[in-house]
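TODO from last week: model Plasmid pRiA4b Orf3-like domain-containing protein.
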Amino acid sequence: DDVLDFADPDTAADDRKVRLQKVLKPGSRFLYRYDFGDGWDHAIVVEKMETIESEPWGAAQVIDGARACPPEDVGGPHGYGAFLNALCNDPNSEEADHYRNWVGPGFDAELFDLRAANATLLRMASNRWGNR
């Protein structure tokens, strides 16, 4: 099973020096943890890798996804579960009203915007992936 998990810091490669394209190949799967405090873990599968000469800083593309990103600072997976439970199962409750006011209008947990996801990656690449 070709899964890269959260490694021991003493044996892990320095992510400031090693690029993903050097350690991954098509079919590789790895876990990405966003926000160590909240524990958002993402399973990522590398479908294809290719060199694009016109993209000196590299490029990435999302080809599929599901559901909206949880609101920032919702409280990790447990907090997001409570958020969804209130909005979906008890939409007229005071708690659901609080969440709607907090998240703002137009939040749709079922919406996945492929174009927006790829636009975000394009902005990151054009910013040299944050390495300016």
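Done. The two ends are 36 Å apart (CA to CA).
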